[in-house]
Amino acid sequence: MKNDFLKKWEETSVIKGFCISVFGGLLMSIIVVAISFLIMIFKSGNDGMRYSFLHLVYFNTKTMSDGSVDMNFGTTGHFLPAIIMVLVFMCFIFAIFTLTKKLLSYKVKLLNERNNTL
Question: pTM (2 decimals)?
Answer without folding.
Answer: 0.78
